[in-house]
Amino acid sequence: MQISRKQLAMFLATIFVVNLVVMGGGAWLSYENEPEIPNTIVGPDGETVATSDDVQSGKAVFQENGLMNQGSMLGRGSYYDVDYTADTLELKTDYMRDYYAQEEYETAYEDLETPEQAAIDETVRQELQSSTHGERVEYSAAEAYAHEQVRQDYVETYHEGDRERGIQEGLIPTEEEAEQFADFALWTAWISHTDRPGTDVSFTNDFPYSPAAGNDAGGAVMTWSVIAMVLLVAGAGIAIWLYQAVELPEPEAGGVSIPHPKEIDLTPSQLLSTRFILIGAVLFVLQTFLGGLLAHYYIERDGFFGLNELLGFDILQWLPWSIARTWHVDLGVLWIATMWLGAGLFLAPLLTGHEPRKQALYIKGLIGALLVVAVGGLAGIWLGINNVFDGQLWWLLGNEGLEYVEIGRIWQAGLLVGFLGWTALVARGFKPLLDREPRYGLAHMIVYAGGSIGLLFMAGFLYTPETNFVMTEFWRWWVVHMWVEGVFEFFIIVVIALTLVSMNLLTKKSAEKAVIFQAALVMGSGIIGVSHHYWWAGLPEVWLPIGSVFSTLEFIPLLFILYEALGQYRAMDTAGTDFPYRMAFYFIVASSVWNFFGAGVIGFFINLPVISYFESGTYLTVAHAHGAMFGAFGFLAMGMAVYILRVTTRNTHWSERRLRWSFWLCNLGLALMLFLSLLPVGFLQLETAFTQGYAASRSLEFYNGGLIQTLFWLRMPGDTLLILGAVLFAWDVVAKLLFQRKATAEETSGHVIADRIFGDRSPADPVSDDD
Hints:
By secondary structure, the chain is mainly α. Helix content is 67%, strand content 2%. Keywords: Membrane, Transmembrane, Transmembrane helix.
C-alpha cells in the first residue's frame, strides 16, 4: 500500500487536532463534574466537624511537606507509606465499628460474637454507602467520632513521628496542620464512598477496594476490561497487517558508504553539546545511588546500617524518604532530558554542516541556565520540605509537592524557558534544512517535538495549591503522561531517524515517511490514553471507556517500535565488525526492547481496568515505571550520548570496553531488579488487595512480612549492577572528553553528511509541500 508523506502528514495533523478537541472537551466536562468540597461537615448535634477551609489547608500541608512522595492519595504518589485515602477509609470504618459496639453492647468490637459483628458491619457499610453530596454534609454520631479519632492518629503519626514506619518527628510541623491533613485525607475517603449524583457509583468509581466500607469493582470495570482484551487481540492483528501493508523502509547497511567519525567535521557548538552528556552522566550516577538508598529504606526504615548508633548521624532527619524519593524521581527526568537536549543540538550541524552565528555562546547560556534550575530546584525541595520558606514561597521557590513536578513553580518556569530556548537553538541549527524541506520534513519534526514538550509542560501552570485536588490531578497527568506516552515517544522516533540518516542507513525521505507514520500511531493513542489515570481520581465516569480503549491502542505503536528495533539490529549485524557506531546501536536497540516490555507488556497489564482497580499504587506500577522510564528513555539517552562521543572522540583514543561493560551491567541490573524483586512483590501485593482489601496491600504489616522482606533483599544484586553500570558510564564519558577532537571552521565547504543530504550545497528554492 503506497502512502505519500503528505497524506501521512495530513493524517498526523488531523489526529493532533482531534486529540486537542477531545481533551479540551474532557477538561470542561471534568470541571463541571468535580466533587466540590462541602462548605461544612457537621455532627448530629449541628456542631462543625470540619470546613472546606480545613480540607483545602490540608491539601496545602500535603504538598508543602512532601507527603505525596511519602505515601499516596487516591493511589497516586509514593508506595513507601500507606495510601492516605485507603488508610483513612479503613480507620474510619474501624472506629465506626468501635463506636457502635460500645453504644449497643458496651464492649469492644473484637470481643463481640460473629453475628453481632456482622450486624454492626452491615450498619457501618449501609451508613457509608448512603452518604450524599452537598454544600452541607451531616455526619452520624459514629462518623463524627471516627473523624476525630483519625485526626488524633494522624497527629501522632505525622507530627510526633513514627520511626517504625520511617516517619521522622515533625514531618508535619504542628498539630493543627496534621489535623488539617487528616481532614483532607478523610475528604478523599468520603468521595470514595459517596455516590456521584445521578449514579450508583462513587466519585472515584468505588476506589479504593474496601469490602468493609462497601467499595467494590463495579460492572463497568469488568465490562471494559473484557473489551480491552478484545481490542488488544484486534490491535495486534491490525499492527501486523499495517506492518506488512504499508511500505516502510528499514535501515540497510549493505553496499552503503557509512561515514567514519574521523571524516566528519565538527563545529564549536557540537563540542559544547558534549557538556550536556557530562552533566547527564553525573546526574545519572546520583540517581542510582539514591535508588539504592530508597531500596534499603524498605529494610531499615529508621536508619542506615546502624550509623545513628555508631556516629549519631540520623539519616531520617537529614535525608528522609520523602526528600530522597523526590530527588530520585526528578534526577531521572533531569539526566535523561539533559542528554536529549545535547543530542538535538549536536544533530543539527551534523546534518546541515552549518553553525549559526553565536550558536556556541547561546548554548553556553543554556548550559548555565540548566545548572541553575537543576541545583536551585533540588535545593528548593529540601528547603521547602524542611519548612524554611514563609508564605507562598514554599511552592514558588521550594517544593510544589506533586509527583514528577515537585520543584517550585519559579524553577518550573525556568525549565519552560529552557525548553523553548532549546527549541529555538535547534531551529537555528536546522535552518538550512527547514528552508528546503516541506513542513513535514525531519528537521521540522524535531522542532515540533521540542515545541510539544514546552506546550504540554504549560499544563503544569494551570493549577495552584488552592485548586481542587481532583482537577490538580487532571492537569498534572497532562504533563507526566503526555510527555511519556506522547511527546517523548515522538522525540524517540525522530531522533533515531535523524541518527540513521546521519549514518547513511536511511535516506531522508524514507525516514520522514516512517517517522510520520509511527508518530501518527503514537499520538493517536498516547495523548487520549492519559485518561486511564483518571479512573479512580474523582473525575467523570466517561473516562473509563475512553481510557480503556486508548490505553489498549497504545500497545500498537510499541509493536512498530519493536519491529524497527529488529530492523536496526539487522542493519548493525550486516554492517560487520568495522561498523563504527555499533555500541550506540546496542543502547538504541535495548531502548526499543525495554520500551516494548516495560511500557507495553507491563503497561497494558496494569492498565486493564479490573487490574488497575486493585493494583494502582503498588509495586507493579514501580516495575512499569522503571522498565519504561529507564529502560526506554534512559537507554536511548545513553545511546545518543555514545553516538556523540564516538564522533567527537579522537579515533586513536576510542575504546568500547567500559561502555560494553556498562551496557550489560545496566541491562542485567534492570532485569534482575524487575524479575527478582519488583514484579514478585507487585504480584503478591495484587493478591493481598484481591483477598484483604487495598489498604492491607499498602500496610506496614504487608511490607514487613518475611517473604516480602526477602524479596526486598533480592533487589540488592540488580541495584548493585545498575549503580556499577552508571559509574562506569560516567567514568567513560569523562575519559573520552579528555581526548576530544578539535573543532573545524564553523561552516565548511565540504561536509561528508550534509553534502549527501543536500546534494548541492548552493542555495535552492524551498521544496514544495507537494513533494
